[in-house]
Each structure stands twice: as C-alpha cells, then as structure tokens.
C-alpha cells in the first residue's frame, strides 16, 4: 500500500455483528416471523443463516433486512457441524432450540482462533436450568423435558454464556437469576429484543439479570444496535491515517472507552446524538490499553490499537485479559517493521514511522483489520492475504476505507477459485 494521505468523509455504520448473531439465534424462540433491520451482508450472518436452517428455520434476505421464521423447530441436522465450524455464535442456538424443542444437538463452535474458548459456562448454566448434557465426537446433546428457573452464578461474565442461558430462561418455568452476567451492549440488546417478543426480563445492562419464564414468544420487527466495533475500527483508522471522518448511526456512549483513548492519542472527537466526528492531524501518540469485559476497553479493538501504537509517537503497552492467545497479529506487524516485545499478556509497542509495506496474512477477523490499518500508512505496497476472515465481520471494509480516500482495493480471484482473497493497498 502506498500511503494515500488522510481520510475524509462520512460512513453509515451497520447493525452490530455481535448483536445480530444472537438475535438470529433468539428468533428460533418466536412463534411468528422475526424481521431484523439493517443487517450487514457478512460471512458470519450467511453462515449463521445456514446454522438456523439446520434447526428448522427459514431465513431470507429482504434488502437490508433478514426475515426468520421457525414454524416447526427441530433439534439439529447432519450439516450443522460444517456450518458451526465457521463461527462461534453457532453455539448460541443451544439455549433457544432447547427451550423450544426439549432437546437439541449442537456442534462445538468455531470462530476466531484467539484462545481455547471452552463452553463450560454455557453448559453449566443450561444444566442448572434442568438440561442433561452429553458431549461426544464434537457434538453436544442437551435434553430437558422442562426447563426450570434457577439462580445461576457465572464464574466469569461470559458474553456467550449469558446469552445462551438468557435465551433458555425466557421459556423456563419460574424465575431465573443470572449473577455476574456480561453487561456488553450486545447482551443488553438481546434482552431488549426478547422483551419486545414478550419475555419478562429485569436488570437490562446490569450484572444481575432476573427472568420470569413465559409460555410463548411472538415474532417482531427489530433494529439491532449499531456496530461499536466497526465504528471503533474506523475511528482508529482515522487516528492512524489522519483526516476528518464522521460516523453516522452510532451510539457514542458505546464507544466511550475508544473515544477516551483516541483523545489521549491526539484526536479531536465531537459527539452528537447518533453520530461521531473524528478529526486527527499528524501522527498519533502511543496509548496504553487493557482489554477487559465491558465497560472496559473492548478486546475486539485490541489488535486495532496495536496497529495504531505501531505507527505512533512513543511507546504503548497493550494488555489483553479476555483471551489468552489474541496477539497473533503482532507477528505480521513485525514483518512490516513494527517494534514489539511480548511480555506475558502485554505487548510493548514502540512506534515506527513509516512502517514498510509487504505481504502479510490476516490471522483472524480483527487481526486482519489491524493489518489493513497499518497498511494505510506503510511505505510501498501492503497485501493482506486471507481477507475472507475480515469479511466475517465487516461488509466491505476496503470499500468503506476507499470511499474515505484510502488507496485500497480487493484483488480479484481467478474465476472459479475458492481460496483466499487479498486486500491490496498501494
Ligand atoms: C459472537 C460474539 O458475540 N463474539 C464476542 C463474544 O465472544 P464469546 O461469547 O466467545 O466471549 P466470552 O465472553 O464468552 O469469552 C470471554 C472469556 O471467557 C472464556 N469462557 C467463555 C465461555 C465459557 O463457557 N468458558 C470460558 O472459559 C473464554 O475462553 C474467554 O477467555 O464476546 C467476546 C468478548 O467481548 C468478543 O471478543 C467476541 O467478539
Ligand atoms: C472474536 C470475534 O468474533 P467471534 O467471537 O465470532 O470469533 C470478533 O468479533 O472479534
């Protein structure tokens, strides 16, 4: 990539991948059709649609909306393993399909390779609601004649475990209390969505959720929250490349940890209801961050901050506390000339200007996006291979950046080729 100078313009942010995917799973609970608005056409949504089809749902795209209907839910199909390997959120069908069918077969999930990512907290919570659990050959079978409310203490505020237990509890008999629940905005959005379907949930956005089971839930039309990680990525891109970028359809409060760090880095940030403007002149100053559960700095933006610190003035310390193996992007940044030392769960990064463009490989979704950001200001051409991993979570990241003035395009694959797509910046 040849540095193309500052970014300028406006971008409309999509609905959040990590809100849409649990909402798709929750649609299995509804007696009628569910319509989700402003859903990005990303790989994870397509793969999740395939997973839902294995449980008897029909899933259709209608423009920017997704229509899901499950008249006759079923407990899983042969193909589920293949689709589940593609994404973590596939495991979120466990709670709702169990609640609706009384038994479910789910495959151990895939998703970003950023740690061991067990599902013990999901299974422990579902067992406490009365499910019997059997795990064999990568398939988990859950059975419960009836689910009964319980008080569940999570050892860790896991996003996915909170979501799975919540989706089972809404149809369980009696009251469920989830203590030490995750408080991420996407969990709150799921609870809000379930409420519009007729669920009884108290404590939205708090670390104790109280659920009173109901007999049945309705279909609804719903617009998921905007994607704070897509917005954060473009905010950090502006801090890296400089410029003046306005993000529309955002919830600025969801971005406050990012805003605070980018202000430290030298960006001027103007928040309006529903929009956010980032103005940046010159090179960013390095910042320290510690990725942790909400309301801490989001782990999904940790790699992007590594890219910013790699080109910043000074030295920043980036600490990851959520996933034990979420630093594989550092090896690729090193190939571009970054100065990085990894000490246990912290990366000490001293800014280098300019980085040097070369061929690198996206190690995972956000790690891939981080390499794109580094490529925006690296000298010469940067090619990011494995861009299909970036497509899991962004609908055309390169198109958004190109619209803002970056010199970036997607390498066309030879016809009929089914391999890695590269994103080229020159
Ligand atoms: C589809 C989706 O929404 N993905 C998000 C979700 O992932 P995900 O739901 O997988 O994240 P969790 O909050 O569950 O995981 C956090 C930590 O808890 C551990 N853990 C989790 C469950 C369990 O049963 N046992 C266990 O030990 C994990 O290994 C990890 O170290 O939240 C993460 C943390 O904000 C984000 O990075 C992901 O983008
Ligand atoms: C880690 C992520 O996704 P997943 O949990 O689906 O792997 C992510 O969105 O950054």
TrEMBL record:
One of its GO terms (molecular function) is UDP-N-acetylglucosamine 1-carboxyvinyltransferase activity. The keyword Kinase does not apply. GO terms for biological process: cell division; cell wall organization; peptidoglycan biosynthetic process; regulation of cell shape; UDP-N-acetylgalactosamine biosynthetic process. Residues 3-397 form the Enolpyruvate transferase domain. The modification 2-(S-cysteinyl)pyruvic acid O-phosphothioketal is found at residue 112. Pathway: Cell wall biogenesis; peptidoglycan biosynthesis. Keywords: Cell cycle, Cell division, Cell shape, Cell wall biogenesis/degradation, Cytoplasm, Peptidoglycan synthesis, Pyruvate, Transferase. It catalyses: phosphoenolpyruvate + UDP-N-acetyl-alpha-D-glucosamine = UDP-N-acetyl-3-O-(1-carboxyvinyl)-alpha-D-glucosamine + phosphate. Gene3D superfamilies: Enolpyruvate transferase domain. The keyword Ion transport does not apply. UDP-N-acetyl-alpha-D-glucosamine binds at residues 88, 117-121, 300, 322. CDD domains: UdpNAET. InterPro entries: Enolpyruvate_Tfrase_dom (IPR001986), Enolpyruvate_Tfrase_sf (IPR036968), MurA_subfamily (IPR050068), RNA3'P_cycl/enolpyr_Trfase_a/b (IPR013792), UDP_GlcNAc_COvinyl_MurA (IPR005750). The active site is at residue 112. Its EC number is 2.5.1.7. Phosphoenolpyruvate binds at residues 17-18. It is found in: Cytoplasm. Pfam families: EPSP_synthase. Belongs to the EPSP synthase family. MurA subfamily. Cell wall formation. Adds enolpyruvyl to UDP-N-acetylglucosamine. HAMAP family: MurA (MF_00111). This is UDP-N-acetylglucosamine 1-carboxyvinyltransferase. It comes from Luoshenia tenuis.
């Amino acid at each position: 990539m040849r540095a193309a100078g500052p970014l300028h313009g406006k971008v409309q942010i999509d609905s959040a991948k990590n809100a849409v995917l649990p909402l798709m799973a929750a649609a299995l609970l509804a007696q009628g059709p569910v319509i989700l608005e402003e859903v990005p056409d990303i790989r994870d949504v397509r793969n999740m649609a395939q997973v839902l089809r294995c449980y008897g749902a029909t899933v259709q795209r209608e423009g920017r909306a997704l229509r899901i209907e499950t008249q006759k839910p079923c407990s899983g199909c042969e193909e589920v393993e293949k689709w589940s390997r593609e994404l973590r959120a596939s495991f979120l069908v466990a709670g709702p399909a169990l609640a609706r069918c009384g038994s479910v077969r789910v495959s151990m999930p895939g998703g970003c390779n950023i740690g061991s990512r067990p599902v013990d907290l999901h299974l422990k919570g579902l067992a406490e609601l009365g499910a019997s659990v059997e795990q064999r050959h990568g398939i988990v079978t859950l059975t419960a004649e009836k689910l009964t409310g319980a008080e569940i203490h999570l050892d860790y505020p896991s996003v996915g475990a909170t979501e799975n237990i919540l989706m089972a509890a809404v149809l369980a008999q009696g009251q469920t209390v989830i203590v030490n629940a995750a408080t991420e905005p996407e969990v709150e959005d799921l609870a809000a969505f379930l409420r519009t379907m007729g669920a009884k949930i108290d404590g939205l956005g708090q670390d104790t959720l109280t659920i009173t089971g109901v007999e049945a839930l309705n279909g609804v039309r719903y617009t998921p929250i905007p994607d704070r990680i897509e917005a954060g990525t473009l905010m950090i891109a502006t801090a890296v490349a400089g410029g003046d970028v306005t993000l529309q359809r955002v919830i600025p409060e969801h971005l406050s940890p990012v805003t605070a760090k980018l202000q430290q880095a030298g960006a001027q940030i103007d928040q309006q209801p529903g929009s956010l403007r980032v103005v940046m002149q010159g090179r960013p100053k390095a910042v320290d961050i510690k990725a942790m559960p909400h309301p801490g700095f989001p782990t999904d933006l940790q790699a992007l901050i590594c890219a910013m610190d790699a080109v910043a003035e000074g030295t920043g310390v980036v600490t990851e506390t959520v996933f034990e193996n979420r630093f594989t992007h550092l090896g690729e940044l090193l190939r571009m000339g970054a100065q990085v030392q990894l000490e246990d769960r912290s990366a000490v990064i001293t800014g280098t200007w300019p980085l040097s463009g070369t061929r690198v490989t996206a190690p995972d979704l956000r790690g891939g996006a981080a390499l794109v950001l580094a490529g925006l200001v690296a000298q010469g051409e940067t090619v990011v291979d494995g861009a299909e991993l970036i497509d899991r979570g962004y609908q055309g990241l390169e198109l958004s950046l190109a619209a803002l003035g970056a010199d970036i395009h997607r390498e066309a694959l030879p016809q009929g080729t089914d391999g890695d797509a590269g994103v080229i910046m020159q």
